[in-house]
């Protein structure tokens, strides 16, 4: 029987594991979409550790919600949401990060992480790689729909998906 997934608020002692999960998830998700030199950069884990430390302790991010998913005591998913950098009509929360290691897809970890950082009653938006049919289907299942906005970030085409407030 598979071990249960638990989701909790991230703590400073989690940043190393969070960084490794994020980098491995990027490698699993974006290989072929993002340059290998970026995905395989030996300094990427250290850079992501600095990112997570800032996300957890810097006053600029105090309104953000950061969560981890664990299985057998090991971090296998991360999520972060907070106020949008530039307020836009129609949504009040930006989902900045949601990654679960591929070996744990389908365990409910992604849904639990989403629920931990974005309330079911909150309007929210996110950027998702395109193509990334698995992630886009996951977000559709949770009420997000593409709003027609597109951008290219680090060479990756992304579409914005938005979920309006549900009461």
UniProtKB/TrEMBL annotation:
Start and end residues of each N-acetyltransferase domain: 5-166
Organism superkingdom: Bacteria
Database matches in InterPro entries: Acyl_CoA_acyltransferase, Bact_Acetyltransf, GNAT_dom
CDD domains given in the database record: NAT_SF (cd04301)
Keywords assigned by UniProt, alphabetized: Acyltransferase, Transferase
Family annotation (SUPFAM superfamilies): Acyl-CoA N-acyltransferases (Nat) (SSF55729)
UniProt-listed Pfam families: Acetyltransf_1
PROSITE patterns, per the entry: GNAT (PS51186)
Matches recorded under Gene3D superfamilies: 3.40.630.30
Listed PANTHER family: ACETYLTRANSFERASE, AMINOALKYLPHOSPHONATE N-ACETYLTRANSFERASE-RELATED-RELATED
Protein name, UniProt field: Ribosomal protein S18 acetylase RimI-like enzyme
Organism of origin: Agromyces ramosus
């Amino acid at each position: 029987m598979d071990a249960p997934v638990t989701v909790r608020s991230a703590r400073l002692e989690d940043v190393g594991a969070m960084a490794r999960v994020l980098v491995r998830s990027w490698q699993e998700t974006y290989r072929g979409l993002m340059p290998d030199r970026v995905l395989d950069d030996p300094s990427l884990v250290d850079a992501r550790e600095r990112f997570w430390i800032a996300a957890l302790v810097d006053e600029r991010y105090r309104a953000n919600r950061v969560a981890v998913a664990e299985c057998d005591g090991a971090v296998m998913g991360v999520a972060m949401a907070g106020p949008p950098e530039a307020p836009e009509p129609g949504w009040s929360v930006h989902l900045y990060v949601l990654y679960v290691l591929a070996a744990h897809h389908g365990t409910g970890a992604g849904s639990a992480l989403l629920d931990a950082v974005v309330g079911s009653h909150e309007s929210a938006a996110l950027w998702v790689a395109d193509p990334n049919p698995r992630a886009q289907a996951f977000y559709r299942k949770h009420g997000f729909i593409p709003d027609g906005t597109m951008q290219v970030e680090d060479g990756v085409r992304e579409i914005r998906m938005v979920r309006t407030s549900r009461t």
